[in-house]
Amino acid sequence: MSELELNDAAPARCCIPVAEAGLTAEGAATTARLFKALADPHRLRIINALATSDESVCGCDLEEPLGLSQATVSFHLKKLFEAGLLDREKRGVWVYYSLNRKAAARLGDVLRFDGKG
């Protein structure tokens, strides 16, 4: 499966707001996968690092600031990518990541309530 196909099927691309009527079991499971991807302090720090960077970041550049091994950083980046929260670009032997800003903006929509109730 290509990166684009994987990213298009990711939970961040298809979550509906929890305040919307008729949340199906499948919709709830998809939304839960998205929040599961975020339910780790290291992943939140990765999201923070990418959200505050003006350009893509090589995965290798996250090891020292996070205090994690290359394998652990790669594991967390993969989980965030599969959730649709990151974009990635291979440059030679290195992979650069950036926050998928549209997907991140949808996170706010998932928990947005209209004030009723």
Question: In brief, what are we looking at here?
Answer:
The chain has 117 residues and is mostly helical. Helix content is 53%, strand content 12%.
Written account of the structure:
The protein is mainly α and 117 residues long. The protein has a single domain (3-110), classed as Winged helix-like DNA-binding domain superfamily/Winged helix DNA-binding domain (Arc Repressor Mutant, subunit A, Orthogonal Bundle), CATH 1.10.10. The chain is built from 7 helices and 3 strands. Strands 1-3-2 form a 3-stranded antiparallel β-sheet. Strand 2 and strand 3 (94-99) form a beta hairpin. Helix 4 (41-51) crosses helix 6 (70-82). The longest helix is centred in the first third of the chain and has 14 residues, at 25-38. The termini are far apart. The relative contact order is 0.19.
